Amino acid sequence: MSNRCYLRHPLHLVLLLLVPGVPGLAAQDRDDSLRGRMVETTGEGELTFAPDWAYLRIGVQSNDSSASGASAGNADKLASVLGALGEQDLGSDMVETVGFGVNPHYDYSAGGRLVDYRARVDLKVRVVDLGTLGALIDAVLLAGATDIPKIQYQVADEEAKQREALALAFAQARSKAEALAEAAGKALGDLSVITTEGTYSTMFDVEAITVAGYASLAGGAQITPSNVSIRAWVKTRWQLVSAR
What we know:
By secondary structure, the protein is α+β, with helices and mostly antiparallel strands. 25% of the residues lie in helices and 41% in strands.
């Protein structure tokens, strides 16, 4: 597992000079070195991890002049695709149906003319052995799947990794505040406010693969897993005190 950290957030800061005597600031009057002197900084933390598994989205679609015909034809395709998945030793809990529908297809450029009916089923497959992704895609497309609209990579224990990214973001915000305090001839005092703008995980979707596109892939689908990036942002406000 790779674990690379990038701290690339540009420096954003605001120096706040609070006017003495304004109501609500009496608590700060106990020490002249604290009154009216604050510094705000932001920080960003980013961690990159090798993925632990992938979610593969598989589309199975059929068209027919009748709704019943489209549904029946798609049921046959779906059975074939599920049979191909069953040969991949994924486990029964690794495959789920996440979409189903039978709908009329109209040509609105021709005044809303009914063209045919479309039946579609979307499957979501969890793949732990990432080295088998290419072979799995080969199998389901050859079995009758019409498209692979999404491949999404994910990591285990994402919440813990988000906390790590937040800690890195805070460390950067503090480092900025210390540098600004030193440049101003002051020292960094207590932390007054800390907020987070949340965390963001980049799951790196792979470009969709269709049956037509698959036919142009020499040697089948070649899939190289992408890393997952987790980023976090914080904003801090610190008191400035006299340097000792």
